[in-house]
Amino acid sequence: MSKAVLFDGPGCIGCRACEDACKKKYNLPAIEITGATNLPAEPTTNQKTYTHPAELSAYTWIKVRITEIDDAKGFRTVHILRKCMHCIHPACVAACPVGALTKNPDGATIYDDNKCIGCRYCMAACPFGVPTYEWDKPIPFIRKCIFCPDLLAEGKPPACVAACAKRTKCITIGEREEQLAKGRKMIADSKGKGERGGDKYVDHIYGEHEVGGTNWLYLSEEPFEASGLRTFDSKILPANFNKVSWGGNWGELSSFSTESVPVNAERAMLAVPFVLPGVAIVMSGLYWVFKRKDKLSQENAGKNDKKGMTK
Amino acid sequence: MSELEWGSKIYLEMWLGGMAGGAYFSAFLFERFTGETDKRLLRMATFLAIPLIAAALLLALLDLANMFNFWRILVAFQPLSPVWVGVWLLQPFIGIAVIMAVLWIVENRMAERASLNLRRIIDVLSWINFVVAGVLMAYSGVLLSGTNVPEWASTPLLSPVFVAVGVSTGVALLVFTALAYRGKWEIQSQMVSRLAGILPVLMVIQLALLGGYLFMLSGSPMLGTDEALNIITTGSLAIPFWISVAAFLVSIGLIVSTRGKEIKKTAVRSSIILSSVCVILGGLLLRAIIIISGQM
User: Fold this and answer.
1) A141: closest CA among A167, A109, A115, A169?
2) Mean pLDDT for the stretch of residues A229-234
């Protein structure tokens, strides 16, 4: 059965114990602000709040993104996790030409250093912009959260989940269907129980349907766009795009919000057989036009010659 | 996404691969239509394609961070990965092209009767490589369309644009080489003139597809496409972009100005050569711009 982790955004206090646990388990160095280590220095920058490091990297596989919102409702912070979402149909797995990335039945999208050729296509394919590269190493590899497959195999929770369990318990693991049911119940039970009188959660479990579903599911008190998460509803193509006939495949793009990403590559490849005869037909047409033009001009020249002869 | 670092090796690889595929694809079609039986143009396209594809493969290999693991592609089966498909297209294309080249050299030294069988083999191989060349041209566009980069994935027109660039740069390369080459398999000037006459039409199709691609980019609700369009047309990549468009327009003007004129005249030859260079370099610039813009 596929495992899923449910992240309760409003329950997160931003202690970053999950980040710390991940770094300890995989022996990942801290990213210095001043460049005291041999890793590139990364100054703290304002990403709608001051957090460090600012983004995921080869040495930071999970990050609590804290976003400050200051609007008519007042000042507040929103917490969300930036990490691999472990898609049910991962684009990175489909894109990898050597099978270095694979999807485990338990839900983990894992990576094999020994197979990787370093093409970085997985980075371009990931809809969440998660895989990162060890550019500072002579033989670099892709780095991202791998869902602690060794711990999952032993029936234990991943390091970050275990660390959170000792504090706020806002990151929990279970079977995906159970976690979805739990998330739906939390949303239903929270109506009108928000800090400012509204609902505690927005009525949406991020990851339930996005890109065909993910094994990490998020709840939030603010729309997910506010936390900088890519929302797939905004990718819907114009309504009239369905009318465009493109091998009968591109029309389906209008429902992209819930489609798994590997269909992107599949569609692009399926379009090829339709493009090539098109090119051949255009070139054949061009040749026919030129040939006819030559023939007509030769005929005209012949007629003119005959006229000249008769004169 | 900036970490992706797909730089000059990638766009040079795509440019060389597309041009080689385009040259072969166009030469094959052109000879079928014109009824040429001595296969001079196809021979030229094949001999040009071999070093171009070899260079493209080498560039692709050099871009890999762990290039010593490259052999793993050869033992993997990942038909949904455009990179895997691309490698499996480049290899048979260059393999068949090398066999064809060798057979042509052998055929040249054989008696007429004995060479007939070789010609039949070459004919079959040329058909296979025609299909592979076509897919090879489309492959680079497919590779980019299969990503989640808004500039590349938001319209279905990127692959047709790249096919058009492949065909036009391929034809331009054939024209350029045909004018420069003097030897046993020299291409007849009438044939070169006809081939050059196609270039303006190909340029118009290419510009129309490019316009369509940019139009779809502007109309796409996918996040980041407006920004990409601005980068290409008015932003940091605007100068090279408009230079490439100008190169395509100049190439049209140059070829049109030579219409009906004798190709043996130096001024006419120079115009056609310059036009071909504009198409080839404009194609490189356009590919570079599209690939760079996707990472900005």
Assistant:
1) A115
2) 59
* B82, B148, B194: residue with CB nearest A269: B82
Cα–Cα distance for residue pair B6/A102, rounded to 1 Å: 23
What's the gap in Å between the CA of A165 and the closest CA on chain B?
33
pLDDT at position A240, please?
A: 35
pLDDT means per 10 residues, chain B with 296 residues, are: 78 94 92 78 94 93 88 87 86 92 86 78 91 87 82 82 94 93 78 86 92 85 73 90 94 86 82 93 95 86
Is the Cβ–Cβ distance between A12 and A5 less than 8 Å?
Answer: no
Sheet-wide strand order for A171-175: A171-175, A3-8, A216-219
Q: In whole numbers, what is the pLDDT of chain A averaged over residues?
A: 79
pLDDT band at A16 (very low <50, low <70, confident <90, very high): very high
In sequence order, what are the beta bridge partners of A174? A4
Using CA atoms, how far apart are residues A210 and A207, in angstroms rounded to an integer? 5
- Name chain A contacts of B149, Cβ cutoff 8 Å: 124
The pTM of this model reads: 0.83
B207, B246 in Cβ contact below 8 A?
no
Nearest CB to B3; choose among A116, A133, A238: A133
Question: In this model, does residue A260 exceed pLDDT 90?
Answer: no
Closest partner residue to B163 among A135, A264, A279, by Cβ? A279
What mean pLDDT is predicted for residues A1-11? 92
**Dist CA A43 CA A34 (whole Å):** 7
Query: How far is A36 from A33, CA to CA, in rounded Å?
Result: 8
Task: State how far the Cα of B150 lies from the Cα of B228, in Å rounded to an integer.
Answer: 8
pLDDT tier at A237 (50, 70, 90 boundaries)?
Answer: very low
The C-alpha of A92 sits at a distance from chain B's nearest C-alpha, in angstroms, of 9
Angstrom distance (rounded) from CA A78 to CA A64: 10
Chain A interface includes B82 (CB < 8 A): yes
- The CA distance from A41 to A55, in Å, is 13
Kindly report the nearest CA distance between residue A57 and chain B, in angstroms: 10
User: What's the confidence (pLDDT) of residue A136?
Assistant: 82
Interface of B with A in 178-197 (CB under 8 A): 194, 197
**Residue B169 at interface with chain A, using a CB cutoff of 8 Å:** no
Contacts of B167 in chain A (CB under 8 A): 279, 283
Give the one of B26, B73, B147 whose C-beta lies nearest to A283's C-beta: B26
Per DSSP, what are the bridge partners of residue A185? none
User: What tokens appear for B220 in the block?
Assistant: 């796409």
Contact A134, A50 (CB under 8 A): no
Nearest CA in chain A to B80: A94
Say which residue the tokens 């270039």 belong to: B199
Calculate what percentage of chain A has a pLDDT beyond 70.
76
Q: What is the structure's pLDDT at A275?
A: 66
| Chain B stretch 18-37, residues whose beta carbon is closer than 8 A to a beta carbon of chain A | 25-26, 29-30, 33-34
Task: Kindly list the residues from chain A whose CB atom is less than 8 angstroms away from the CB atom of residue B35.
Answer: none
Is any Cβ of chain A less than 8 angstroms from the Cβ of B138? yes
